[in-house]
Design a protein that fits this description.
248 residues; two-stranded parallel ribbon; seven-stranded parallel β-sheet; Rossmann fold; alpha/beta; globular; binds NADP nicotinamide-adenine-dinucleotide phosphate
Length: 248
């Protein structure tokens, strides 16, 4: 039996990941805030033969987060922990910068909460000598996006954390995968006013992530055209990348 924990499982990519991992050989721990949507996803997973435990809480409450992680891991030692929950959105053109309260929430859900949770579960997994941590970042973490500085910065921080944590916990038998999605058709990206090039469905993204996590990938960029864009952007002068982004 594989024990898989997924945060943000009540919507979008997290819900699709839950369904993709739902087999009779899996016990899923699904986290979200919206009870009705989380239970609907849990029911789908149970119908596929999985045992499912749900927990509704706000990740911004770090004490509750740490307690939830301890409870989940004591109930069923976590094999794969997918910290997926996130808060997105780009700034309207007329705004100078992000509203401070929204910036705080974004930094908390996109960076602080997954960093706290990943450290906590890494200690538990490391003591057992096995486990896989998956952090859902964003292609926005690879580029300094003027239309979403807080989002971009929170995901860039997560990317650096994933890289450093991977190097740290490897010797304890723990793997770390960073996932950097481009545009995936979920409520988060549907709320954007910008175009969504190379858009794929959440189910398509989940199938790719599931397969590549099983292979132990270090960094998954999905869909693939964004991997090519990221590689090209790494080769051209940074001033050119900045000029293109400021026009977008
Ligand atoms: N969609 C894209 O194009 C795209 C691109 C790049 C990266 N990503 C990343 O992929 C991940 C999933 O995004 P998505 O597109 O699937 O978004 P989504 O459909 O809006 O789902 C976001 C999930 O995060 C949960 N969440 C948000 N704030 C929370 C909080 N304070 N406490 C607990 N849970 C919270 C939501 O729970 P409730 O709904 O129950 O509140 C929901 O389950 C995010 O990390 C996002 O940054 C998405």
């Amino acid at each position: 039996m594989a024990n898989i924990l997924i945060s943000g499982a009540s919507s979008g990519i997290g819900a699709a990941l839950a369904r993709s991992y739902a087999t009779p050989q899996a016990h899923l721990t699904l986290w979200g805030r919206n009870f009705a949507r989380l239970e609907a996803v849990a029911e789908d997973c149970r119908a596929r033969g999985s045992q499912v435990t749900t927990n509704c809480f706000d990740l911004a409450d770090l004490k509750v987060l740490i307690a939830a992680l301890a409870e989940a891991d004591q109930h069923a030692p976590t094999d794969i922990a997918i910290f997926n929950a996130g808060l997105g959105g780009s700034l309207p053109h007329e705004a100078i910068a992000q509203d401070a309260v929204i910036a705080a929430a974004m930094a908390m859900v996109n960076f602080t909460a997954p960093v706290v949770a990943a450290n906590d579960i890494a200690v538990r997994m490391g003591a057992r000598g096995a486990g896989h941590i998956v952090l859902i970042g964003s292609i926005a973490g690879l580029f300094a996006l003027p239309m979403a500085p807080t989002y971009s910065g929170s995901k860039a921080g997560l990317m650096m954390f994933a890289e450093a944590l991977r190097a740290r916990v490897k010797r304890h038998g723990v793997s770390v995968t960073l996932v950097s999605p481009g545009f995936i058709d979920t409520p988060m990206s549907q709320s954007l006013s910008e175009p969504r090039p190379f858009l794929i469905s959440a189910d398509q993204a989940a199938a790719i992530i599931n397969k590549k996590v099983a292979r132990g990938a270090r960094h998954i960029i999905v869909p693939w055209p964004f991997a090519i864009i990221a590689a090209i952007a790494g080769l051209v002068p940074k001033a050119l990348v900045r000029a293109v982004l400021s026009r977008y």
